[in-house]
Write a structure and sequence with these properties.
two-stranded antiparallel ribbon, SH3 type barrels, mainly beta
Length: 104
Amino acid sequence: MNRIKKGDHVVVITGKSKGQRGEVTRVTGDRVYVQNINLVKRHTKPNPQANQPGGIVEREAPIHISNVMLFNSATGKGERVGRKVLGDGRKVRVFKASGEVVDA
């Protein structure tokens, strides 16, 4: 069970985008893509078969999962996340500082 999942709101804790918040659009291995964060310019060739024009395209680059923290809306900050097994056998993510369950 990953600490960060698609759809989570995260805050970037290091790098050029430090302090910015956004929603995770996808997770691939140990990298996450966050909406409108860590944008890079990509020079693309036109592809007439795919009806794709050429030019400079801005898109999101991946961020290592260790450089983001899950955003806790109750405290308004990023917090560390741990795992816990409930009495009925379900595994859930919890905030380490408050012990509050992330997954409902």
